[in-house]
Amino acid sequence: MKILLINGANLNMLGQREPEKYGHTTLKEIEASVINKGRELNVQVDAWQSNHEGDIVDKIQALKKEGYDGLLINAGGYTHTSVVIRDAISSIGIPAVEIHMTNIHAREEFRHTSLLSGVCIGQVVGFKELSYTLALEGLINYLR
Q1: Would you call 112 a catalytic residue per the annotation?
Q2: Which member of 68, 78, 100, 132 is catalytic?
Q3: What angle, rounded to 10 degrees, do the helices at 130-143 and 27-40 form?
Q4: Among 18, 35, 63, 105, which one has the highest count of C-beta atoms within 10 angstroms of its own C-beta?
Q5: Cβ atoms of 49 and 7 closer than 8 Å
């Protein structure tokens, strides 16, 4: 089994960005944790990040060709604005889980709406970096 973790805009700033909300763990540390958890569960996990919406769309569209079985995605702010990322997820026919470190439903009103959740099999929010491994475990369970 092969899963891709995509992180969107500004997530490369984790560890520095608003530590009171996101903690001090860096994206590289989160990616390593998810990759290691995948190894424990006998699953290949790759991680990729971009601040650019079109690059994210291109990566999602290439998932089948690259042999991925599932997608974990924290699109960051694009969650609330990107119809094109939603359409890309919808078009590939690969199960996806949406991830957020904070509880987007308890934050500013504009963050309460996710354009992605309707095309994902699930959403994990509010558990800081643990959201990622919880999402991985859920996706693996779904795929198996």
Answers
A1: no
A2: 100
A3: 30
A4: 63
A5: yes
Whole-model pTM?
0.96
Residue 24 designated active-site: no
- Nearest C-alpha neighbor of 121 from the set 105, 104, 136: 136
CB 98 within 8 A of CB 129: no
Give 116-138 pLDDT, tens digit per residue. Answer: 999 999 999 999 999 999 999 99
At 1-39, the pLDDT tens digits run: 999 999 999 999 999 988 888 989 999 999 999 999 999
In sequence order, which residues have a C-beta less than 8 Å from that of residue 52 and are 6 or more positions away? 9
Separation of alpha carbons 110 and 129, rounded Å: 22
Residue 106 near residue 39 (C-beta atoms within 8 A): no
Return the closest-CA partner of residue 18 out of 128, 124, 125: 128
Helix, strand or coil, per DSSP, at residue 96: strand
Answer whether 79's CB lies under 8 Å from 100's CB. yes
Q: Which listed residue (22, 68, 78, 132) is catalytic?
A: 22
Residue 63 DSSP one-character state? T
